Amino acid sequence: MANFAELDENNIVVNVLVVADDITTINGVENEQLGVDFLNDLFPDSGTWIQTSYNNNIRFNYAGIGHTYDAENDTFYEPQPYPSWTLDENFMWQPPNPMPDDDKSYEWNEETQAWDEIELDGE
After folding, report:
1. Same domain, 14 and 61
2. Residue 106 three-state SS
3. What pLDDT, in 10s, does the model give residues 12-26?
4. pLDDT digits (tens, 9 = 90+) for 59-68
5. Which residues, other chains included, contact 36 with Cβ-Cβ below 8 Å and sequence gap of 6+?
6. pLDDT of amino acid 42
């Protein structure tokens, strides 16, 4: 099965659909354009279709609704979780300070630019 992301005019993913292998494959070789053509025929008023990989085999990251497609780098990435976070070389958002590596739970505090320990019930 091949997965395709529909993009709006701002390259934001608005839909993700699966297309059967018998539509996207010729002589055992997958062809992205066949899937794009199929989806354009099925949904003539849709946006731009780009293939995405559930296993991250292409375009670094699997596309989800709300994600951005970066055409220059041919990749998908999630919305920025906090203003201080930056994209790494694999197009994953990274905090300014790494989360502590212990058995505790944390959440990012944008105001203090630090990780706050979360007190879980029963602990």
Report:
1. yes
2. strand
3. 999 999 999 999 999
4. 989 999 999 9
5. 4, 49, 50, 51
6. 96
